[in-house]
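Example 3.2
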Amino acid sequence: MKTRAMTNQELKDVLAAFRGRCQLRNRALMLLQATTGLRISEALSLDVGDVVSGDRVKNVITIERRHLKGGKTSKPRPDNVERLVRQVENYMAKLLDDVLEPRELDGLRQSAARRIRGRKTTAIDSRSFKLMPMAWYALDDWWSEIRGRGQILKSWPFFCTSTGKRLTRIGAYKAYQSAYRRAGLDDCGLATHGLRKTFARIAHDHLKNLKALGTPVNILLELQSLLGHTKVTSTTSYVGTDDEVQAGTLDAIEEAVKELME
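Structure, written as tokens:
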């Protein structure tokens, strides 16, 4: 069964369903995912030093590049950029050959090539997330519990087991599934990745409301940025392509074309 997002009520029910000696940890992990959109692997990669400064939980946490999805991939190579330039040139030649004079066409192609060659291709070093109050308090509750065990090093895993080892994805999955069962949601397509989809669903609803109120916002591109996707097709797999999203994308395409034609 495909993983899905939770409704607001389901999220509330599951958060109240955690039990056992690690309930504070599991609740903090779920709230962190639901309010930041972090992948489970990214959240579990956090060390104490990433979350805590001095003796307090930070307001902003940062995930290092090596822990992000695709973090070990290399930077785009120059020949990839040159190939992209040639593809754009060929496409524009076919598209505009019957519309523009040869001199105008050559100028447009050269302008597009300069734009693409001038873009930076440096890979993202890290991603930072400002903690919402509910997530901050949940993380602080868990931090208060683990620091009571004795001396804690910054290099130790923040989301740890009772023996101090880093919580695994399987361990997190089992903890979530236990809470899902208690909330009566054990056969509803929910898993650890569902929290990232829940974040996307909440953000999508908010952006749609902003657009309905007249705020100029490109829903799809904003979601892509919030989720840290490198490809917009990854974002559409989370929220689909409803009318508002398609309209925002068409607006972006129109603006890009206008910029090219200047």
